[in-house]
Amino acid sequence: xxxxxxxxxxxxxxxxxxxxxxxxxxxxxxxxxxxxxxxxxxxxxxxxxxxxxxxxxxxxxxxxxxxxxxxxxxxxxxxxxxxxxxxxxxxxxxxxxxxxxxxxxxxxxxxxxxxxxxxxxxxxxxxxxxxxxxxxxxxxxxxxxxxxxxxxxxxxxxxxxxxxxxxxxxxxxxxxxxxxxxxxxxxxxxxxxxxxxxxxxxxxxxxxxxxxxxxxxxxxxxxxxxxxxxxxxxxxxxxxxxxxxxxxxxxxxxxxxxxxxxxxxxxxxxxxxxxxxxxxxxxxxxxxxxxxxxxxxxxxxxxxxxxxxxxxxxxxxxxxxxxxxxxxxxxxxxxxxxxxxxxxxxxxxxxxxxxxxxxxxxxxxxxxxxxxxxxxxxxxxxxxxxxxxxxxxxxxxxxxxxxxxxxxxxxxxxxxxxxxxxxxxxxxxxxxxxxxxxxxxxxxxxxxxxxxxxxxxxxxxxxxxxxxx
Length: 469
What we know:
alpha/beta, eleven-stranded mixed beta sheet, 11 strands, 37% helix
């Protein structure tokens, strides 16, 4: 059941928060042994919170009694914060992330913390110390990542809505793999305070939901200026009722981006979406993005470099996992060797190399310059079009373990989603039709800076009229 449908029942007092939470916990207990979407479930805390809310006036809250799952790299006060890594086992956050606090203040109930690729580094949720999360449509396949647990929990009914984080597609890609709607907001729109840093210039918190309106509704609550985040931007956030106007848009299509590597059925689905948009009365025209082909390389240089710097703090001295050693250097070495998984080590090594003496200018500085050129590409494109569309992903989900030893092939799953992170614009993934294999074909809609309302409006026009979903 969607967030807005649940809210209607709760406000009419046809059901109570306790009944809602009890039902979702029942689903978790039935399905978790198959899907592994959660790292921690807060059964007692959620029930206690539900009983407290039952004594309150439902009209005082925007999210009265709504069960929310939170990706386990986002802080919830007094709860374990693992980032899917051995190195943070046992660490409990002393505070809640701003986005989480805003949800709680509006009556949301945090039902648990979801599984993820370790520190958000991956696109399949196979790189978790707690084991892989399985796809909600077919458990033999990957869930996508890194917010795989957050996506699967929504799809199989373990929560009504979830929060994920998106550094290079980590909300949109698992949303696509599980037939959901996922949003990466404009960089600076949602506070990063309380989000464990992977790549600080790319990371953003966003919602994953069953439909466009649920995602938009949550976005209006978690967005807005936060003085605790130096990258937070003080720009007014649209009210929910102001978003959906069913306007006609000028839509840009970068056709060069649809290469031979894209699955044939996804290509056909993309053309289907374009035709549908034209039939709706929107204007569609081809555009040119000159530097898109460098985006994936630039993303991995910049993200790995920032990860190398951000992950220096995990040394076994202050918190988390600590290995035994005869001296400080041995403790450092053994803690990081045993505490980090293979994918995190790979990215730390790449990032450290890119930042090292003699290579910094050749890799990190050059990547930053290309990033700027890519940003100018989008700025120029948005002078002529309102939104830009691409497929969300080039392929359908693969079987668990199929690409685990081929990171380059796995990285290609993010070829379209990294664009929005590098440029800092908002982007949403929306399912447009079912494929012959049972998975979904998805459309990515990218908007101009702080124009989330545009992509919500267009996404709802596509989603609302699609009877196959």
